[in-house]
Amino acid sequence: MDTFVDAVQPQSEGRPCDRPTRAEAEAAVRTLLRWTGDDVAREGLIDTPARVVRAYEEFFQGHEIDPVDLLQRTFEETDGYDEMVVLRDIGFESHCEHHMVPIVGKAHIAYLPNKRVVGISKLARVLDAYAKRLQIQEKLTAQIANAIQDVLAPKGVAVVIQAQHQCMTTRGVHKTGVSMVTSRMLGVFRNNPSTRREFLSMIGQGA
Predict the structure, then answer these.
(1) Does residue 17 have an active-site annotation?
(2) Looking at 58, 72, 98, 138, which residue is catalytic?
(3) What is the pLDDT of residues 26-83, one digit of tens each?
(4) In this model, does residue 1 exceed pLDDT 50?
(5) Distance of CA 179 to CAs 108, 150, 171, 205, 206, Å?
(6) Which whole-number Å values give the CA distances from 94 to 67, 75, 127, 200, in the listed order?
(7) What are the residues whose beta carbons fall under 8 Å from the beta carbon of 80, sequence distance 6 or more?
(8) How buried is residue 146: exposed, middle or buried, by Cβ count under 10 Å (0-12/13-18/19+)?
């Protein structure tokens, strides 16, 4: 995994152009630990700030990935294949931008090729590129679909995401077992009911 660097970085989508140093980030964690009333000098917490910063590097590495670049390499030798491509049950983890707690779920991604196809691993990587940022599920769903549509220019794109939000299950209303479902349908998936039904049937969402 590429690690974050402390130097000033070029500004990217939704990303400030100046970042705190690693030492400043660790100091911020110590402040939060003190705010909870705990002793940051005790054995169990001495290395916690460094561990948290390393964890954040992993949680939010999507800021370092350009989804457009992931989709640029396509293939045209498909022997005329013109049916939908579906990748279902792709597990992912994200974090709620309102409370910074986990969102855990699965995504289903489909597109109907227009001469060009992309390696299926790239679809999962696009999901991670957007998921590994502070997110809301609605925006995550739209970002994935829009990127695929813009870069591949297929006949249509469909994205369905099902996820549990710990901002709802571990705080606030404390409702466990609740899943949120969002979808984004573009092109033929929006305009052609039979295509949309076929996709939903393939991912087990019924007609």
Answers:
(1) no
(2) 98
(3) 999 999 999 999 999 999 999 999 999 999 999 999 999 999 999 998 888 778 888 9
(4) no
(5) 15, 29, 15, 14, 17
(6) 16, 30, 10, 24
(7) none
(8) middle
The one catalytic residue among 57, 63, 99, 205: 99
Q: Which of 57, 64, 93, 97 is catalytic?
A: 97
96 catalytic? Reply is yes
Q: Please say if 137 is a catalytic residue.
A: yes
Give me the torsion for CA of 164, 167, 172, 175, rounded to 10°. Answer: 10
106-161 pLDDT, tens per residue?
999 999 999 889 999 999 999 999 999 999 999 999 999 999 999 999 999 999 99
Task: Find, among 152, 2, 103, the residue nearest to 62 by Cα.
Answer: 2
Q: Which residues pair with 159 in a beta bridge?
A: 109, 184
**Is 98 an active-site residue?**
yes
Whether 165 is catalytic? yes
Q: Which residue has the tokens 């829009």?
A: 146
- CB of 123 within 8 A of CB of 176? no
Query: In angstroms, rounded to a whole number, what is the distance separating the alpha carbons of residues 124 and 32?
Result: 34
Q: pTM for this one?
A: 0.87
